């Protein structure tokens, strides 16, 4: 139960961060506005060593109105259910995307105190809104295969907390 509480603390912290950011005014020039956003996501994927996995995540970030570069922070859970034993990992990373079409990120994935580096790339599926193809490279130090391929469903929502705008 301790891991669940820790995960909930991270989710609450990210939510509070988004609320605080949304109340601030981000103006660099007369009409330069930055909108906070939240994006829950669900992924199903494949790792040759561990088999099938699925992930749940929450990303929060900022959408600059004038510029296509979108930064964000993500926390999530990844569940492997191949090879007879279910394994659970918690991950967190920072990311940047180009107008939400293509992006990359870097962070950590953790299981039972073991911390591994994680890099990710993704691209939007052509003609399918809110679906991303993903690739993660996790440095598991020879214990597992390092390449993870997946498909994500996401639901980005930007807000100023007076109005909500699904993308």
Write the layout of secondary structure elements.
Elements: H1 2-23, E1 34-47, E2 51-64, E3 69-80, E4 87-98, E5 102-111, E6 114-124, E7 131-138, E8 147-154, E9 157-159, E10 164-166
Antiparallel strand pairs: 1-2, 1-8, 1-9, 2-3, 3-4, 4-5, 5-6, 6-7, 7-8, 9-10
Notable features of this structure?
167 residues, mainly beta, Porin, eight-stranded antiparallel β-barrel, 1 helix, 13% helix
Task: Give a structural overview.
With 167 residues, the chain is mostly beta strands. The chain contains one helix and ten strands; from the N terminus they run H-E-E-E-E-E-E-E-E-E-E. Strand 7 and strand 8 (147-154) form a beta hairpin.
Write a short abstract of this structure:
It contains one helix and ten strands, in the order H-E-E-E-E-E-E-E-E-E-E. With 167 residues, it is mainly β.
């Amino acid at each position: 139960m301790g891991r669940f509480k820790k995960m909930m603390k991270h989710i609450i912290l990210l939510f509070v961060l988004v609320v605080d950011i949304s109340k601030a005014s981000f103006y660099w020039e007369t009409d330069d506005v930055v909108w906070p956003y939240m994006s829950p996501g669900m992924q199903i994927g494949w790792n040759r060593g561990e088999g099938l996995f699925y992930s749940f995540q929450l990303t929060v970030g900022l959408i600059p109105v004038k510029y296509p570069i979108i930064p964000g922070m993500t926390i999530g859970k990844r569940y492997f259910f191949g090879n007879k034993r279910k394994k659970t990992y918690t991950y967190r990373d920072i990311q940047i995307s180009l107008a939400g079409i293509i992006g990359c990120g870097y962070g950590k994935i953790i299981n039972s105190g073991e911390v591994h580096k994680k890099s990710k790339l993704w691209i939007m599926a052509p003609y399918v809104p809110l679906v991303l193809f993903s690739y993660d490279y996790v440095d598991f130090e020879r214990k597992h295969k390092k390449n993870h391929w997946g498909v994500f469903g996401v639901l980005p929502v930007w807000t100023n907390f007076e109005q909500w705008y699904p993308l």
